[in-house]
Amino acid sequence: MGIGTKVIRAGLPPAEQGKPISQGVCFAAPYRASGEPSSSPYTYGRYHNPTWTQFEQALGELEGGVALSFASGMAAVAAVFGVTLRPGDVIVMPSDSYYTARLLADGFFAEIGVQAQKAPAAGRELARNLDGAKLLWLESPSNPGLDVCDIVALVEEAHKRGILVAVDNTTPTVLGQSPLLLGTDF
């Protein structure tokens, strides 16, 4: 199936006679949950709702993994940094990666003792900085410089050392590359 067809079909349930092709958008915030709330698939719209579930299923299908949606790209960046980095850890990232991602690494995470090592995205500089790292953060192409790195080679080098790899795929999207299929962790 071509990517165009995947984009149109991703997350849709199998065709069923008399059923809608696509579930409509759900605008509900609270859901009926009599008794123990944990027995209900949805309880409150800010935590989860059917629209997000369908969106995450579609995105996961397109990306070749499991998808979680966030309110913003920076919320996703903060989530990856927050679940992987602890005081004393090292993150390696492109020196021209998204400005606010660098600010987060150099601000809050530096204040709690995380060291950010930056190198140009193109060439071998990122790989040369991997010693002692916990997370390799990539953008390819980088934003704003649009430098390209060899994701497969960097993943291979990082994984040999037990380093997690995350890719911000905002610029190319799944239409241009699929980082999870290239071996990344996030």
Describe what you observe in this structure.
By secondary structure, this protein is an alpha/beta fold. The chain has two domains: 3-63, no CATH class; 73-182, Aspartate Aminotransferase, domain 2. Helix content is 34%, strand content 11%. It contains eight helices and four strands, in the order H-H-H-E-H-H-E-H-E-H-E-H. It has helices at 3-9, 50-63, 73-84, 99-106, 108-111, 125-128, 151-160, 173-176; strands at 90-94, 115-119, 135-139, 164-168. Strands 2-1-3-4 form a four-stranded parallel β-sheet, with helices on both faces. Helix 3 (73-84) runs parallel beside helix 4. The longest helix is centred in the first third of the chain and has 14 residues, at 50-63. The radius of gyration is 19 Å and the shape is globular. 21% of the residues are buried. The model has no long low-confidence stretch (mean pLDDT 91).
DSSP summary, beta strand count: 4
**Cα-atom radius of gyration:** 19 Å
Biggest beta-sheet profile: 4 strands, parallel
Return the average pLDDT rounded to an integer. 91
Order of neighbouring strands in the sheet with most strands: 2-1-3-4
Head-to-tail CA distance between termini: 24 Å
Number of DSSP helical runs: 8
pLDDT < 50 runs, ≥5 residues: none
Helix/strand/pairing category: alpha/beta
Instruction: Report the CATH topology name of the largest domain.
Output: Aspartate Aminotransferase, domain 2
Estimated helix fraction? 25-40%
Q: What's the overall geometry?
A: globular
- CATH superfamily caption of the largest domain: Type I PLP-dependent aspartate aminotransferase-like (Major domain)
Query: How much of the polypeptide forms β-strand, as a percent range?
Result: 5-15%
Q: What is the architecture of the largest domain at the second tier of CATH? A: 3-Layer(aba) Sandwich
Query: How many domains make up the 3D coordinates?
Result: 2
- CATH first level of the largest domain: Alpha Beta
What oligomeric arrangement do these chains adopt? single chain
Q: What is the H/E string?
A: HHHEHHEHEHEH
